[in-house]
Specification:
Shape: globular
Largest sheet: 5 strands, parallel
CATH superfamily: Aldolase class I
CATH architecture: Alpha-Beta Barrel
Distance between the termini: 39 Å
CATH topology: TIM Barrel
Number of strands: 8
Number of domains: 1
Order of helices and strands: HEHEHEHHEHEHEEEHHH
Strand content: 5-15%
CATH class: Alpha Beta
Number of helices: 10
Helix content: 25-40%
């Protein structure tokens, strides 16, 4: 559940950064509307909830929303920059512990941090992590690896591990929600990305062949013309800051209006799934018949953002898949 697109950081690679503006506050759900949607989630049997954004902690009513959700019984993850963290929020998390608090730390030094985030919050960010650890709150630290911080990766790893936390890097960068693909220039070259994934691990590594040998059995020309071959709609959905329900963070159409009086989570989930599962390839896109489609990072949503087409191949992902297979083969896997 995206409570806001606002964030105190302005990271160059952020796919929601295009909407990180003061004006976005006007279109956000009110406290009452958020609670109404949470009630509908509860009624429909939702168990797990993730508050994200932007940074949900920037909302002045976050403590009220969070407390309400906890009392409804949800298991809650909170994705945050940690910059808005204060004593009141720490006390709130201690009283009502979340399942996890996740943050992204992309530098190990103040200068590099400012270059990436556009802000001078390095010390505040690292201290916030230490405060959560000191208070024995569950914290996970992620790192978005790009051309901007690849030289920092060893230092970041040492810093994260000095806190007794697992280093969780990702080399995946997507176009922004307004289809601004210029941020894709921050991607590592495919061979370097494959090397980083191989050396340091990748926090979505269960999808890589070297971590799940049985995936090798899936390599082959896919059957049928089904457009979505991922896990879309399998067990989760998203809610935008405006109360729209959708099934993929990159693809926000079709959607379902949860603010309508007679709307229901279960009905929206059914209708959205019915819609996307019916979607077929309409062109002779190479992705339609590629034998590596099950291990490639391409998907219709990412193609829509970057290529403005649900079916257009993304050359970078083709190269990344080949580089990944080559890196695995060189290790005898």
């Amino acid at each position: 559940m995206e409570l806001t697109f606002r964030c105190p950081l302005d990271c160059a690679h952020c796919y929601t950064g295009c909407y990180n503006r003061k004006g976005s506050l006007k279109s956000e759900l009110s406290t009452r509307q958020v609670k109404t949607i949470l009630d509908k989630c509860k009624e429909s049997g939702v168990v797990w909830l993730c508050f994200t954004g932007g940074d949900p902690l920037v909302r002045k009513d976050f403590p009220e929303i969070y407390t309400y959700a906890k009392k409804l019984g949800f298991l809650i993850n909170v994705f945050t920059s940690l910059i808005p963290l204060n004593k009141k929020m720490v006390s709130l998390f201690k009283r009502y512990p979340p399942f996890n608090i996740e943050t992204t730390l992309n530098a190990a030094e103040a200068v590099a941090y400012r270059q990436i985030t556009g802000r001078r919050f390095f010390n505040k960010h690292s201290e916030a992590i230490k405060i959560l650890l000191k208070n024995k709150l569950p914290i996970r630290v992620k790192t978005q690896v790009t051309r901007q911080n690849i030289a920092q990766i060893k230092k970041i790893k040492r810093m994260v591990e000095s806190w007794k936390l697992k280093f969780r890097p990702s080399t995946m960068v997507f176009a922004r929600l307004n289809q601004d693909a210029s941020v894709c220039n921050l991607r590592l070259p495919p061979e370097e990305a494959a090397s980083v994934n191989k050396k340091y691990g990748y926090f979505e590594e269960e999808y890589l062949p070297q971590k799940r040998p049985e995936i090798k059995d899936l390599i082959g020309v896919p059957e049928g013309n089904k457009l979505f071959r991922c896990a879309i709609g399998g067990h989760a959905f998203w809610v935008s800051p405006q109360g729209r329900m959708f099934l993929c963070n990159c693809l926000r159409r079709p959607d379902y209006d949860l603010l309508k009086k007679d709307s229901a989570i279960s009905r929206g989930f059914y209708l959205l799934n019915k819609s996307v599962q019916r979607m077929k390839f309409k062109t002779s896109s190479y992705c339609r018949r590629c034998k590596y489609s099950f291990i490639c990072s391409w998907c219709p949503g990412r193609a829509c953002l970057e290529k403005k087409s649900l079916e257009e191949p993304i050359e970078y992902f083709c190269c990344l898949t080949q580089a990944t297979l080559k890196a695995n083969k060189s290790k005898g896997q």
